[in-house]
Amino acid sequence: MSDTASRLIEAREYLGLAIDHVVSESGLTTNALAEVERGMRAATDLELRRLSRVYGYPASFFRGEAPALDKAELEVVARWAEELTKSDQAEALRFAEYLRFAALGEADASS
């Protein structure tokens, strides 16, 4: 399975979106989404843009091109996270990624 496929599945599952909802909102067919998620074929740029709108992540995230957090941001988050359980740390990280990529997606859409 490709990194893109893994990121697409992870985002859909994290958001709790049913495949039918993603298909309806993105305009992709069920077969196209299944083929992309299984890594049977690469998503086109248009498909990634459509999925990025549904998921709230920029297409660059799915391609693995999103920039990393800077060191100062990571240090602040690390200090806060020390007080959380391991499970809560993992969930907080996923939520922080979602918020960050949603903001990047909004910036991409307004460009």
Helix content: over 70%
Give the radius of gyration: 15 Å
Query: On the 0-100 scale, what is the average pLDDT?
Result: 85
Number of helices: 7
Strand content: under 5%
Elements, N to C (H/E): HHHHHHH
* Main sheet summary: none
Q: Structural class from helices and strands?
A: mainly alpha
The span between the termini is 32 Å
CATH H-level superfamily title? lambda repressor-like DNA-binding domains
CATH fold name, please? 434 Repressor (Amino-terminal Domain)
User: Which oligomeric state applies?
Assistant: single chain
Secondary structure layout:
Layout: H1 3-15, H2 19-26, H3 30-37, H4 45-55, H5 59-63, H6 71-81, H7 86-110
Structure description:
With 111 residues, the chain is an all-alpha fold. The chain has one domain: lambda repressor-like DNA-binding domains (434 Repressor (Amino-terminal Domain), Orthogonal Bundle). The chain has seven helices and no strands. The protein is elongated, with a radius of gyration of 15 Å.
Using brief descriptors, characterize the structure shown.
mainly alpha; 7 helices; 434 Repressor (Amino-terminal Domain); 111 residues
Can you give me a brief rundown of this structure?
With 111 residues, the protein is mostly helical.
